[in-house]
Amino acid sequence: MVQHVDEALETLKNAKVVAVVGISPKPERPSYYTTEKVVKKGMHKIYLVNPRYAGQEIFGIKVLPSLKDVPEPIDIVNVYRNPAHAEEVIKEAIEVGAKCVWFQPGAENPEVIERYKDKIKIIYNACIGVEAGYL
Fold this sequence. Notes:
Mean pLDDT: 90
Strand order of the largest sheet: 3-4-2-1-5-6-7
Oligomer: single chain
Order of helices and strands: HEHEEEEHEHEH
Number of helices: 5
Distance between the termini: 21 Å
Structural class: alpha/beta
Shape: globular
Number of strands: 7
Low-confidence stretches: none
Radius of gyration: 13 Å
């Protein structure tokens, strides 16, 4: 579990593959505009995950239905979902062998984080878009 922003930045700096869960094609949504920042940095291979938009393209990247459809190891699962879905996202991240789950502000679920903090690295107190700005 990450408590320090420095560690969040370090995690992002060392990541190669980021899967964004809960991406939206709507430019006014945080999942869209913060992911756009990360994509424009060009430092990470980005996969977009949302069963609602599977098959569509956002930023020229085809949206996948689930983390299981990402064809390579995932360093960060970047989560933009309602906190009620936190447990299913963490379980799937563990199942596919992801290194870290990063809950964006508003997506974190303290009970679920507490339950899984020893099973996978969890970041929940930093915005990936803000951190990308420091890279």
